[in-house]
Amino acid sequence: MEATKPNNPQPQAPKPAVKPQPQAAKPQPKKADNKAVNSNVGGIKSAFLVILVCLAVAVCLYLFVMGMISNFTGGEGTGAAFAFQVGDEVKLAPSNLAGTVYKGGFVVPILLTCLFTVIVLSVERWFAIGKAKGKGNITKFVANVKDALQKKDIAKAENLCREQKGTVGAVVYATLQKYKEMDQDNTLQKEQKLTSIQQTLEEATALEMPALQQNLPIVATLTTLGTLLGLFGTVLGMIKSFQALSQSGAPDSTELSTGISEALVNTATGIATAALALISYNFYTSKIDNMTYAIDELGFSIVSTFAATH
After folding, report:
1. 260: closest CA among 63, 94, 32, 135?
2. How far is residue 67's CA from residue 83's CA, in Å, rounded to a whole number?
3. pLDDT per residue over 195-235, tens digit each?
4. Are the beta carbons of 252 and 244 closer than 8 angstroms?
5. Cβ distance 94 to 100 under 8 Å?
6. Element (H, E) at 93
7. Residue among 228, 253, 256 at smallest CA distance from 242
8. CB burial readout 5-35, b (16+ within 10 A) else e
């Protein structure tokens, strides 16, 4: 008889579990950059502190630099280091320009304060308006944005604003955001949408203008004030000159020269202050006007594009 085979089959070794292969991550679509554009003009907020610092510098320059005894003749034997320490009995004659300016009197530090204030605020406006201008050429920026608007490519116009930055970029970007908002609005009529876009442009411009024009009114005031202070110092100097001439006998030559020096120095300083302030004010005003024209031109293009496509 043949041996019977066992009915129970031999247990087989378990097959190793097949690990699922990780699938390659699908590329996520790039999100649009919705970061707002800020002008960040900056600048000196308190011009009063600038005037105080300039006054302190002007007084120190007048007393301790122009008032050094080495700038005068006839004071070598007084033992004083500065002319203002010498008594009235000692008559000092200026030996150089610094001494002549010192003889201009108390009006000189005031005029120097005005002059230094104009210089400081002009340099401050140079950096502030340069930052407000943005990174690129405004004319080229306007042309590129208008080209994007003609192609109805609002996203490209927004990217141009982000690259440009500054005041023009910030105002145009805010207007484009309102453009997109009105484009998705189905409740307002076309005229109302156009009015809303125009109003956004005007509001954004009005918010940026004070930062651009900051400290310029002070520069404009110094244009007139410098001339008036120079005229005031001139009158004081002429009064001293006529007092010296009115003395009996031979006129005091020292007093006469002091009065003439005071008149001429104050006149020159006042004219220099007024001229520099006038140039600075007109220069920066023209820069601001150019940015304003660019904003108006792009705002008109945005409104026209919306009107033509809706």
Report:
1. 94
2. 5
3. 999 999 999 999 888 889 999 999 999 999 999 999 998 88
4. yes
5. yes
6. strand 93-94
7. 256
8. eeeeeeeeeeeeeeeeeeeeeeeeeeeeeee
Token code pair at residue 4: 């019977």
C-beta atoms surrounding 299 within 10 Å: 20
Q: What is the pTM of this model?
A: 0.80
Residue type (1 letter), 226 = G
Predicted confidence band at 92 (pLDDT cuts at 50, 70, 90)?
confident
DSSP H helical ranges for the chain: 47-64, 97-102, 107-133, 138-150, 154-164, 166-184, 190-213, 216-245, 253-309
* Residue appearing with tokens 């690990």: 19
**Dist. CA 160–CA 102, nearest whole Å:** 56
- Other beta carbons within 10 angstroms of residue 205's beta carbon come to 20
CA-closest candidate to residue 218, choices 130, 293, 124: 124
Instruction: State the amino acid at position 34 in one-letter form.
Output: N
